[in-house]
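Example: L-aminopeptidase/D-esterase.
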Amino acid sequence: MIPGVLVGHHHRVGPGWATGTTVVLVPEGAVGAVDGRGGAPGTRETDLLDPANLVQQVHAICLSGGSAYGLAAADGVMRWLSERSIGFQVGAQPHHVVPIVPGAVIFDLPMSEWGNRPDSSFGYAACEAASETFDLGCVGAGAGARVGSLKGGVGVASATVGAHRIGALAVVNAAGEVVDRASGLPWLPSLGARPVVLPERKPEGLNTTIGVVAVDADLSKAECQRLAMAAQDGLARAVRPAHSMFDGDTVFALATGAVPLEGPRAFALDALCTAAAEVFAGAVVSGVREATSLNGVTAFRDL
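Written out as structure tokens, the predicted fold is:
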């Protein structure tokens, strides 16, 4: 997506398993922020990202299945980073660091046998797999994802805004639908122009879309927060309803600071926010398009 931003997946898909973890690594550090809109969030270390608080940079974002149990995957991410002395310096020696790893989870427990969920080993393995190139669809945190009555997954999208590159990664697991049940047409035409007949929806409480929007601009924490807020608009364009009481919709923002934000700052930031909504909507579409049918849950591509 963005230079300096790596993505890794680890998952188990098979008898009794359909869950996993996705890690967005920024080993050199990046300014971070978060915006949460759903009524049922499952998050870790998000208070650190408040612009009023001390820590300015994060070193990874951990996205995981497993509901609140899956927050344990971030422990493995911290271990991987600490072994490489990457983190917030708290002592005199290079290895005296505390890695800053905010995270969020999706509710995918019914897709696996009870007790089968990500732990710290998933986070560590996802870091080991992190690269500039990575798979999409039913991988990592998207392994057990659903969106309404369809199979969800991991998707990405990116754009260029002036001298800047902006990208988004979404784990699509919303309670809402990507297709209008009345017309059979997707809310966003880029999913497909032909009407489809949706499977009958079963109210199982599978919900929450989480993700990351990243940019190479030198933004402050407060400016990053505006980016994360704008990305939530993209989620609302692609999934309806969004931000329900049964969703924990959470979007993180990262700014690597590699390219100065030029021109009148407010206008340049506004252009990035506009793009953030577009690319996050595109990432949601990508996650739905790339997903494959699994465990009796039909994918959009198979309708």
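The first helix runs from residue 73 to 82.
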